[in-house]
Design brief:
Elements: H1 2-21, H2 28-34, H3 42-46, H4 50-61, H5 65-75, H6 81-98, H7 105-113, H8 141-152, H9 159-186, H10 192-208
């Protein structure tokens, strides 16, 4: 039980510090101090490496994959397919943010996006492949498939611009949810259900905008 609690405390501390200061702004020692751990080898003992700790954060927090797949499947027969695909992207992310109070998951994602290609839909690898400061992310096939289907709906844009537009819209959603999380910490946040509706409306408008 104590081992599980220690792991959870380290995951929570690492997510929070990365969310607040970025992947290059913290040290393992700071994470352990924030987690209340005096053993400097706790990360190595529980996770092996810093990268594996970051991978554990992704695996622990990314809980909306099944919901996303179900919404993605339902979108195939929707009257407004693009609108349904947008919901399949936004709702699972909102669901993940709602799992913890306070949440740092969107801010963690925002820090990750700050260091990769602008069009991460077309080029999902980090700017510096193999950079140890960036987490290895497994199981992205479902969201990449969703991005591809959203891109395919943007027939009003030239093909080279479609994935770039999807990446821009996805960044908007993550940044907006990161702002919601910061408001949550300060005690001034608004209804997350209302926020989800607003995010879907604005993401859809951004995707449908002309060049």
């Amino acid at each position: 039980m104590a081992g599980s609690t220690t792991r959870e405390a380290i995951v929570d501390a690492a997510e929070r510090l990365v969310a607040q200061r970025g992947f290059r702004g913290i040290s393992v020692r700071e994470v352990l101090r924030e987690a209340g751990q005096r053993n400097n080898g706790a990360v190595a003992y529980h996770f092996g490496t810093w990268r594996e700790l970051l991978a554990t954060i992704w695996a622990t927090r990314a809980t909306g994959t099944e919901q996303q797949q179900n919404l993605h499947a339902a979108a195939q027969n929707a009257d407004d397919r693009l609108q349904a695909l947008v919901l399949a992207y936004v709702r699972p992310f909102v669901f993940e943010v709602a799992q913890r109070t306070p949440s740092y998951w969107a801010q963690f994602n925002q820090q990750w996006l700050a260091g990769i290609h602008a069009d991460f839909v077309n080029s999902p690898e980090p700017l510096i492949p193999g950079d140890p400061d960036y987490p290895p992310i497994e199981g992205t096939e479902a969201v990449q498939s969703l991005y591809a289907d959203i891109s395919a709906e943007l027939l009003h844009l030239p093909p080279p611009l479609r994935t770039a537009r999807v990446a821009l819209a996805a960044r908007f959603v993550i940044s907006a949810l990161a702002c919601w999380e910061r408001d949550q910490v300060s005690g001034t946040w608004h209804s997350l259900d209302d926020y989800e509706h607003e995010l879907c409306t604005l993401m859809l408008s951004l995707l449908r905008a002309d060049r």
